[in-house]
Amino acid sequence: MPDVRLASPQGKWILLTTVLGSSMAMLDSTVVNVALPRIGRDLDADLAALQWTVNAYMLTLAGLILLGGSLGDRYGRRKVFVVGVVWFAAASLLCGLAPNAGVLVAARALQGVGGALLTPGSLALIQASFHPDDRGRAVGLWSGFGGIGAAVGPFVGGWLVDGPGWRWVFLLNVPLALVCAPIAVRHVPESADGRTDHGRFDVLGAVLGALTLALVTYALIEARSGSLVVVVTAVAGLAAGVAFVSVEKRRPDPMMPLGIFASRQFTAVNLVTLCVYAAFGGFFFLAALQLQVVVGWSALAAGTALLPTTALMLLFSARSGALADRIGPRIPLTVGPLLCAAGMLLMLRVGPDASYLADVLPALLVLGTGMVTLVAPLTATVLGSVDTSRAGLASGINNAAARAAGLIAVAALPLVAGMGSEAYRSASAFDSAFGRAMVVCAGVLVVGSVVAFAMVRSLPAGCRRPECRTHGSVLTPPLEGERTRGRLS
């Protein structure tokens, strides 16, 4: 049984290194959006290259995060976490030194591999190290401090872009890793599952899942060309998706056991997740560009402008979870997406010479209120819709689904909104397309609200409740459970 107490020096070191590790990955999910206009200008990159700068990272992270958790279970959580931190830092260094967009995209994909190792590992280390009496508080502190990191990310990113340059958005991870990895090696106890019946890794499932996302993403981003290659890639992506489902259905130890979707409630809440996080991913990708390209703000001003959504999440997510415990998840999961949709429609007022107080802030406050309303109940419903022994697996699948939804949204939304490859270089062209994109995002959120109202029901008494009560990420729901594994628990 883990016996480290939170108040002990070792407990504080464990908390510090896990917060630093998770913050590295969380920061890169938010700060890069603010840097995109400057990256595009310096590297002479078109919109597709900017989409790949975001999506290359999300692609490998979403495709491998379930497998990354299982590696820690088998080979040692501290070992895999440290490997992830070092890998992430090395890839970040390559991003910061990238001479062109192609190298940057490749380095971002490598970053995602490191993120898939350290993201589930940071939570697993806390759950495997702390005494049961302290674990809940440790998880809460880890989640809260990580949320603060997510909150300051756009601000720090904007400051770096306007100051020493966009490359420091990536290079900043190197000194963080130089602090994080040695602390982990010295102060974090090693832990593993300890079982002998692990079974085989579902490497084929992981490869097919990542390949499906990669092919579909490529087809959506490059669809403007209308070439035969795009058509062939799209068909290949669908074929890979069918093969993934077939493999997962037949394997005795699948990465994503399809039987878990026999729960109607679990299926429903994951459909809601796909809708809301697709909208969030598309919004935060385009909003940072809109504020700089169209409104004319600096990267620092644009990053700072987006802080209210994360601040609201940090301040009120725990209270929202408590309210959902009393009234059930159906109402919050129905009302929350509608509030978010209203916030995105209010962003239609944000154009040239927009006022922050009159135009931007009201939209972000409404959007943030909607996010507060829905995120905690969504997590609770994921955990409450499956057996307690599968809570970690359910949370991992839900987290991966949210990342995949954001990935597809960043690839598809510019296409659906009619953005050309050079749209971000023209304020008028981008402004028109941004308005269409916000309407699309609002429509997707309304679909999520309808799904929640029609399919989500009350949670059974005594079901598993989230440990992460405070959450600050605007792009993914929190990870939960004792482990996030790449196989059936």
List keywords for this structure.
75% helix; disordered C terminus; 3 domains; globular; single chain; Growth Hormone, Chain: A; mainly alpha; 489 residues
Largest sheet: none
Strand content: under 5%
Q: What coarse outline follows from CA principal-axis ratios? A: globular
- Number of domain modules: 3
CATH topology of the largest domain: Growth Hormone, Chain: A
CATH class of the largest domain: Mainly Alpha
Gap from first CA to last CA = 19 Å
Mean pLDDT: 88
- Poorly predicted regions are 483-489
What Rg, in angstroms, do the CA atoms define? 21 Å
Q: What pattern of helices and strands is seen along the backbone?
A: HHHHHHHHHHHHHHHH
CATH homologous superfamily assignment of the largest domain: MFS general substrate transporter like domains
CATH architecture of the largest domain: Up-down Bundle
Task: Give a written overview of the molecule.
The two termini are 19 Å apart. The protein has three domains: 186 residues, MFS general substrate transporter like domains (Growth Hormone, Chain: A, Up-down Bundle), CATH 1.20.1250.20; 53 residues; 201 residues, MFS general substrate transporter like domains (Growth Hormone, Chain: A), CATH 1.20.1250.20. The chain contains 16 helices and no strands. The protein is mainly alpha-helical and 489 residues long.
